[in-house]
Structures are given as structure tokens and as C-alpha cells.
């Protein structure tokens, strides 16, 4: 403990015995009142984490929750495009105003900060972590029931910063049916355990394709071993998403809010249980 200790670990860099994981938590902006924070993670890139973040947010919004997305995938932000949100977010001397989608989902993303959204983000880990923290501390989010955090892929430096700085209530793990991915799911589960954050469940993306003529489901990547992994770790399976060209088209057109499909009904049930009062 330093001699001038004021017991506010967030303003002190000393690594003393008084410091707890909680003390790394950053305070949100005073104009933010965020009830629940759910992080969407994947052990590796390209499994559809952003798509699941988008769909879960649309479901929360359809359940009439005030919904927001913090796009923590700073180097590969895809949320604004999926929602057809563009331009730069506004700011004043007090802070940053989040952008809003057509149905009123609030969001902040690096792509809404950069002058040109096709500029690559070539920042080092600590800078990226700092940007995510600022999305939490400097954005005037207002009243939010559910905030979904689209995490950077993997279990590295930036996810660690996010888990330490934001009061994450639970995580959703996104996976695909390949065998390699099951190992990666275990990494995500173990990271959540280390951080003491509950795993709300797992969603398998690209689970199958459905024949448009006969309705048969074809497991393109082979049979999934999701049940075995879920059993091993006591995880709920929150849904399985097909590979659906309509979803791709909606994402590309910025129309994700129009998706139809009941693949993630269990997500709605979970949200209604976590926050019965709106
Ligand atoms: N089940 C699916 N059906 C159809 N298209 C899909 C599906 N999953 C993902 N896609 C398409 O792939 C694109 C990339 O997915 P997404 O951005 O969600 O991956 P990601 O895991 O977030 O990637 P990264 O981790 O690299 O950021 C989506 O915009 C969508 O067009």
C-alpha cells in the first residue's frame, strides 16, 4: 500500500496487496445507467461473434429492453455496418454521444470514431485496451438495460483488459462445429473462470445448412460435439444458427434488425429471466 493511499485503486498504479480484481473496474460516465453487461466472446476469429452480438441485441430490443452495443473489436469492427449505421459519433465537452440504429439500439465502435472507416487500426494492445475503456468511461450511454460487448477474438491482452475494466455480468461463447474450436471454447470457459465471470451459455454458429427444397439439415463441418463440451463444463446451449444466405445478405445490407428466425429463442428467455423488470 502506498503511503498516500486513498483506497481508490482506479487512480493508483501501485500493485499492492490491497488491490482486488474489482478495483480495476472503471466508472462509467455519470450520464450512463447500465443495468447488465453481457460480453460475447469467441476463442478465435471468424466464427460469427459479431453476428451473434448483433442478433442478441436485436432480440433484447424486440423484448423492449433499452439495448446498447459496445464494439470492443477495435481492430475489426463490424457492428455499425451490420446495422447500417455510418458517419462519426458526435461529442461535446462532457463526452461522446452513442450512435443509434433504426430501431434505437445505441452503439459505439472504432468505425464511428475514425474519419475514414476503411483506415486500418494499427494500434498496439495497451492503446486498444484504452480505447475500449474510453467507450465505457467517456460515452454518455444514458439508460441502458442490456449492453452487449462484441469482444475482440481470442483470450489475449485486450479481452483481459475488458474483463478487468467493465463490470461484465456474464459471457456468451460463440463457437462453430469444428473439433479445433472445442479446444478454443475451453480456453474461453477457463478465462471466464479465472475472471470469476459466469458463462451464460454457448451458441453454435454455422451449425448446419438447411436444404431449401426438402428442409433436410446438412452438417457442413461434420457432426458437432457441442453437447459433450457443454456437459463437461455445465454450459447451457443457447442456440444453433444455420449458415443462411439471408443472414449474410442482411448483414451486408446493414439490415440485421430485420432478421427472421427463432434460432435464439433461449437467449430471449435468458434475458427475460436476468432482468424481469424493464
Ligand atoms: N450463420 C451465418 N449465416 C450466414 N452468414 C454468416 C453467418 N455467420 C457469419 N456470417 C457472415 O460472416 C460475416 C462475418 O461474421 P462476423 O463478423 O460475425 O464474424 P466474427 O467472428 O465477429 O469475426 P471476427 O472475430 O474476425 O471479428 C458476417 O457479417 C456474415 O455476413
TrEMBL record:
**Which keywords fit this entry according to its UniProt record?**
ATP-binding, Hydrolase, Iron, Iron-sulfur, Metal-binding, Nucleotide-binding
One of this protein's Pfam families, by short name?
ParA
- What are the coiled-coil residue ranges? none
Q: Which GO terms describe its molecular function?
A: ATP binding
Listed binding positions for ATP are 43-50
Subunit field text: Homodimer.
Member of which family? Belongs to the Mrp/NBP35 ATP-binding proteins family.
* Primary role: Binds and transfers iron-sulfur (Fe-S) clusters to target apoproteins. Can hydrolyze ATP.
Name the UniProt record assigns to this protein: Iron-sulfur cluster carrier protein
From what organism does this protein derive?
A: Gallibacter intestinalis
Amino acid at each position: 500500500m502506498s503511503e498516500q493511499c486513498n483506497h481508490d485503486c482506479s487512480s493508483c498504479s501501485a500493485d499492492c496487496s490491497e488491490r482486488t480484481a474489482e478495483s480495476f473496474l472503471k466508472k462509467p460516465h455519470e450520464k450512463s445507467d447500465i443495468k447488465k453487461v453481457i460480453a460475447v466472446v469467441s476463442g478465435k476469429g471468424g466464427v460469427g461473434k459479431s453476428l451473434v452480438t448483433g442478433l442478441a441485441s436485436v432480440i433484447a430490443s424486440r423484448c423492449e429492453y433499452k439495448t446498447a452495443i459496445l464494439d470492443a473489436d477495435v481492430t475489426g469492427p463490424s457492428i455499425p455496418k451490420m446495422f447500417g449505421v455510418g458517419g462519426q459519433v458526435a461529442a461535446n465537452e462532457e463526452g461522446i454521444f452513442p450512435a443509434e440504429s433504426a430501431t434505437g439500439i445505441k452503439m459505439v465502435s472504432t468505425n464511428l470514431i475514425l474519419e475514414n472507416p476503411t483506415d486500418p487500426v494499427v494500434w498496439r494492445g495497451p492503446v486498444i485496451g484504452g480505447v475500449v475503456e474510453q467507450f465505457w468511461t467517456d460515452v454518455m450511454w444514458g439508460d441502458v438495460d442490456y449492453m452487449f460487448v462484441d469482444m475482440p477474438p481470442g483470450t489475449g491482452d485486450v479481452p483481459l483488459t475488458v474483463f478487468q475494466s467493465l463490470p461484465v455480468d456474464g459471457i456468451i461463447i460463440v463457437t462453430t462445429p469444428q473439433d479445433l474450436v472445442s479446444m478454443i471454447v475451453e480456453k474461453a470457459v477457463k478465462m471466464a473462470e479465472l475472471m470469476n465471470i459466469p458463462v451464460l451459455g454457448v451458441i453454435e454458429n454455422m451449425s448446419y445448412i438447411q436444404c431449401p427444397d426438402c428442409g433436410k439439415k446438412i452438417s457442413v463441418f461434420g457432426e458437432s460435439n457441442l453437447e459433450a463440451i457443454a456437459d463437461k463444463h455445465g454450459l447451457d446451449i443457447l442456440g444453433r444458427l444455420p449458415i443462411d444466405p439471408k443472414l449474410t445478405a442482411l448483414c451486408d445490407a446493414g439490415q440485421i434488425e430485420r432478421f427472421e428466425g427463432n434460432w435464439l429463442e433461449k437467449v430471449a428467455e435468458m434475458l427475460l429471466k436476468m432482468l424481469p423488470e424493464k
